[in-house]
Request: fold
Amino acid sequence: MWIVNLAIIALVIVLAGLVIYHDTHNFKVREYEVSSDKLDRDFVYVFLTDLHGYFYGRNNERLIEAVDRISPDAVFCAGDMITATKNHRNVEVDSGLRLLEDLSSRYPVYISNGNHEEKIKVFRADFGNLYDRYKSRLKRAGAIYLENESAMIEGTNIRVTGLCLDMDYFPKVVKMKMPQGHIESLVGKVNGDEKDNFQILIAHNPIYFKDYAKWGADLALSGHVHGGIIRLPFLGGVISPAISLFPKYDAGMFKEGDSTMILSRGLGTHTIHVRMFNPGEVSVIKLRGKKNVT
Reply:
């Protein structure tokens, strides 16, 4: 009997290893649909985040081919396309940089920071002027880099804002409470005629979704959690980068009043190089316009 049990355990370990290998080296295209009476027509966007220096094929050709098949109106990026390890003063930058440069030659690309871009910006003693060079190259490639800034998407009433939170808002274990009015202090208010715009907020950390909704985001785009790294049936993501078990916001679409958050599972890994029942994600966002529809 013990031989049978041992064989079963060995089979489970092998199968788990195969799932982990597959999910760590592959991605899925996942679609989300959001309707708004602020929009008078439909749009299709691609949302990428958390590549962490990973390559899907030579020069990320698999990712580029996937985006080209979608042929989006624009591409949004919520950061962590690089991995910055302060202790080793090492940054995996080429993958994300080249991918975003390539996509910027094909589509309008709107980029904001994740905590790893913020890390190389803040710790200049470790990383020098790497952040400035990274940002400069992407802007030269034509990307719209939104560092606590906003931009209108040409020919639309869609306003995109990139929120870059300080490193204090990416702690381990304990969530830092966001003071009232903090988002307004960084990016300004959504007021006046701007309320007629459809407001997209690129905000890397999803745990502040209620604050994003209160600020006035019609749609928040977040990442950071990697889908919970390992996902279990009925339970969802197991652990977040903040060492939070079964995080409330792990992956998918969430609602808060009139606001929607799309939380991508991201594309890469760092520190814990494991994904299980949780392949990477290329998010397709279909905005459906209801304005003036009879």
